Structures are given as structure tokens and as C-alpha cells.
Amino acid sequence: MSDPEQIWRSDFRHPGVWDQPFPPQSMVDLFEASAAAHPEAPLIDFMGRRYSYAETLDGANRVAHGLKALGYGPDDRIGLFLPNVPHYVAAYYGVLKLGATVVNFSPLYSVDELSAQVADSGTRLLFTLSASALLPTALAVLERSDLERLVVGSVAGALPSAKSLFYRLFRGAEVAKRPDDPRILAFSSLIHNDGSAAHPKIDPENDLALIQYTGGTTGTPKGAMLTHQNLSANARQVALLDPERGQAKDSVLGVLPMFHVFANTCVLNRTVLAGGEIVMLPRFNAKQAIAALKRTGARALPGVPTMFQALLDSPDMTADSFASVRYCISGGAPLPEQLKSVFEKLTGSRLIEGYGLSESSGVVSTNPYDGLNKPGTIGQPLAGTRVKLVDKENPKRAVPKGEPGELVVAGPQIMRGYWNRPDADKQVFVTDRKGVRWLRTGDVATIDEDGYIRIVDRLKDMIAVGGFKVFPSQIEDVLYRNPAVKEALVIGLPDAYHGELPHAYVTLNEGARTTGPELCQWLNGKLGKHERVAEVVVRDNLPKTMIGKLSRKDLLAEVRVSPPREKP
After folding, report:
1. Extents of the domains making up the chain
2. Which residue blocks in 227-328 are alpha helix, DSSP H?
3. Class for domain 4-13+377-458, per CATH?
4. pLDDT confidence of 19, banded at 50, 70, 90?
5. Can you give the pTM of this predicted structure?
6. Of 501, 481, 505, 484, nearest to 492 (Cα)?
């Protein structure tokens, strides 16, 4: 195989050219340019209620004004503990207009997880909703951390009037009461201003826009520092993939959670850049997603493999369900070739696999929207993105042609580094002789004669559960809190729906009287929803290395050959 960079220069399968520059641009300028060009166009369709670009810009201005009046400014980190609701978009761009940094938090987080990341990031204020699945967690974190304030929005207030009334009357169990506490402010009160506060000048290449937590190359969550330029460049890179850009209706079904970097780029930032519309659903539900596609005629659907499988399995799927959809973009986990084949045959839509990381602002490479798709590959890199394969033991040395190597990436979308973790930066970045700074992905890949990349292995122990990253060491740490548990190992095993699921294996302390199912119930009650294990198996012993260290690798090999039965 020749130099892949020469292949991408001469035979780039995406629209445009591979080696093109992306001038510095702030996310605020990106948003305001689209709002000025399309003020009356719809930006958000939330369960049938539409918000125009002008309305959303006004909301963001009011958020920035309200935060400034409370004493927050450019040096602050402001957290979003929100599902897909209009409040997220107003808060996201409002914080950016303030010159502050957004910190994304998963609505699935437990109190411990949220507390740890609030403390690590130094988040001072947190946006959330008056939902029973969110507000109690946020309140608990307010009491046990240095968090100063909560801003609490109402889902009912964002819905069309008829649906809002239905929500208040019949779904009261899903609503948590906002306490009467001076530290807790209603979203409506925060934005009760004219939005006229002046905004600071932003340096796109140096000012942080987002801290996105990720496990990186180890299981310890770290905050990837993404600048305005990182995010705006990746939005522009992704927008260039569309061969019909500017020629057709730009409407995307936004069911991927926006706290996830994949959705942040492919649903939110890219769509805003294009002046398009986000058909927003607060959570993924196959029936609701199909109904939204039919109602709005959305043209694109970014998602994870489990989502596309659930759509195929839904009894609501009909021959015309995807009549408007041209492209479905799959990321977050490997896309099974059988799923791609069946989905494309039944829906008539193209299901395109791509690849990215939190450290890359979302997207590194993808198969072309039109043209040659190679199942099992992640396609060619985006414009402006450099990719090569190196020796995982010596990342400054390229691997021989035709051999697999660790995938390293350079480009305008690559993070500045990890928040307050220079030690981790040294592990994840390598600088070559020409001064180019490469991000080590921890994934082993090959590159074929057409410049298409295939991920063949992982250096990480990370388990991919429906697009979410789950780290065995964190689950093991929780298991060790149980007085009955002597040793614990967690591994990922294949699952037809989720891709992988965590399975826990333990030995017990002498005299302990408990079972695997009992431990499973205890453990899952202390984990985030995406981390919950499929089972806990009690064994007489667990495999160890020659020096006595528990061996996850050997356990995985044992289980795949012959799944062990639980100790009676």
C-alpha cells in the first residue's frame, strides 16, 4: 500500500479535497452567523413546538445576561445535566456567549459520578430539569459538593400547549418539586431579562468551549478540553460530508443525547452551521422516533447501532417509515455488517459507519455518504484530518506497510489536552520530528489500498454498551465495597442488542453467604443505567498472572471458550 496521505490527496471519496484548511472560528460566531442568515427558520422542533433561530438566539442571550448578573463570567465552568430539551440549546450557546466553558454531564449519572466530575471540573452552576430522574440527583450533589447553584427548567413549559397540559395532568409522577432554596433558581427566572449584556471577545484557538468527560486511554474519567476552534472545525468538517449540502432540506432527527460528543457535533453544531432543523426528542423511543420521522420528514438520523436495531425490531416500522431519510450515520460502537445490510434493505436509507472520540470533538473518519462504502471499516478521514498507524510500544515509529498499528490522529478537531491532567497528556500525545502533535486513540487499525480504515482491536479494557463507554475498573471498585466480595473482575461480552454488556465475576470472603443474583441486584442499584451488569457470577477462584495480579484477559479467554457456571 502506498502512503495513505497520497491516496487521500488523489482519491478522496468525500466531497471537496482532503488537505484543506479550517480558519479559526468561535462557536458564538458560527451560531450568530446562522441566526442572522435564517432568523425565522426553525432550529428546534420539540414534540411539535417549533423554535426559530431568532428565538433561540434570544434565549441564549438571556441565559448569558442572567448568568452574568449572578456573577459568572469567562473563567467559569457551567454544567449541563440535561436530556434533549430546548433548554439545552439555549443554555449551551448562552454559556458560550458568556465566554464561559460548558461541562457536559450525562443524565444517567449517579450521585457519586456527578459529584466527582463536578468537583474535578470546578463546576459552579448546574442546569437541570424538574424531572424525578434528574432533580433529586442534582439536589444531592448540591449538598455534598462545592456547587453553588442549580438552574431548574420545566419540560412542560417547552411543550406545545395541549401536550403541556397533558404532561401536567397525567405525568405528574415524572415531575420533582423544586425546593424553596435561594441556591435554586427557575430557568424562567434566569432568562427574565432583555438579553442585552455585552459579551467578551473569544479567541477560538485558545478559549475553551467544552469539557467533555471521557475515559481516554484508561478507565479514569478525564475532561477533554475542547476549544471553540476544535468544535467549529469539526462541525464544518462533518457538514462538508453531505454531497447535497445547501441543495436540500436540512433536517435531522435529534434522538442521540446531546451531552454525548457525537450528538454535540453531528446533531447540534453541524445542523446550526447548516441553518437546518433539529427534530428533538428527549430520549430515544423507537415508536416516537418513527412517528417524528413521518410527521416532519427529517432527512438524516445519527445514532448508535443499538438504536438502529431497535427501530428494525419495532412493530411500528412500516415500509414508508424512512421515506424521507437519506442518510443514517452510525457511531459510538462498531456497526455489525448484518445490521447495516438488513437496515438498508428494509428502509431504503443509507447506513454509514464512522468513528470518533471525545478527544477529537466527535468525528475522525466516516464512510462516504455517496459512493463506495466498505462494511466493517470506518471509511476515510475527514477533510483536514491526518491519520497514521504507529507501533503501540514505540508510537514515534510507523508500522511496516500492510501491518496493523495503533491509530493516531492529528487535525483541527483534536483537543488541547485533559483538564488538570498533564500526566495523562504525556501518555496520550506524541510529537513527531516535524512538530506535529498526534493523539493516540488506543485502537489498533489497518488502512487498505483505497485509504479506508478498519479498527481491528482495542488497547483499552473499555466496554462499548450501546455507544456508551463503560470501564470495568469502576464497576469493580463498587463491588469491592460489598463486605462479601473478596475478588472481582468485570469483562465485556457480546450482546445482540447493546453490542456488549458488562459481566461481573467474583470470589467471596470466607463465611460470606450471598448469591450472584443478590449481588447483581445490590450492584446495579449503585451504578449508572448504562453501566449495569448482565450478571454477577460467584466462583471459587479467578485467573491471575504469574505475579498474582487478577487477569481480565485470561478470564475473558476462559469465558469465551466455556462460560463458567455459578458456584452453588
Report:
1. 4-13+377-458, 27-202, 463-561
2. 228-239, 261-263, 270-274, 286-296, 305-313
3. mainly beta
4. very high
5. 0.84
6. 501
